[in-house]
Amino acid sequence: MILLTFLLVIYLLLILIFMFLIVFFISSLFQDAPFVPVNSSVLKKIVESLELEPGSVLYDLGCGDGRVLKEALKEVKGIQAIGIEKNILPFTLSKISLRKTSAKVILGNFLKTDISNATHIYLYLFPKIVNRLFFKFKEECRSGTRIVTCDFIPRDITPDKVIDLPLSHNGLCKKLYVFILK
Predict the structure, then answer these.
(1) What averages of pLDDT result for each successive group of 10 residues across the chain (182 residues)?
(2) Could you tell me the CATH number of the domain that includes residue 49?
């Protein structure tokens, strides 16, 4: 009887988890950017392209599960790493993934969050939101702030550098675009 009750509880938990994932997936289709994890094979390239050094303040806008922040903290000592994520499931994953690091993860809207202390910014978001963010960067961030975008660039702005990435199995993360705020 106890075994049957235990199995029933496990079954109900699995159903709840499955339903939560379906709701999350459907709701992410209507977001500015759905949660798309960066392939681990390009993480080092992303961190290299940021050219972080001790004292850098890195913001990952739409940080997902926090893997870029985690890699940056692993590769470069003495940086401040801050992620901003508005979707609860990736936010929770990033909090778990980064719990033993100095990274700070904020649940919120990066369009409404002050990022004026950023020296480096990474984002992997759709073009529509990238365009809106570049206006924010120009208003809030200081000259010399290094911005790295993956796959999408803002309209009418030429990157300072383009980095080709190794092809991944899913065809995502093809290029990094580096911008230095003037």
Answers:
(1) 84 80 61 75 94 98 96 97 93 95 96 97 92 94 97 92 81 89 94
(2) 3.40.50.150
Give 41-48 contacts, CB < 8 A, sequence gap 24+: 41/166, 41/168, 42/165, 42/166, 42/168, 42/173, 43/67, 43/68, 43/71, 44/71, 44/75, 45/163, 45/165, 45/176, 46/71, 46/122, 46/148, 46/150, 46/176, 47/71, 47/72, 47/75, 47/76
Q: Which residues are 32's β-sheet partners? A: none
If one counts the domains in the chain, the total is 1
Domain span including residue 153: 40-180
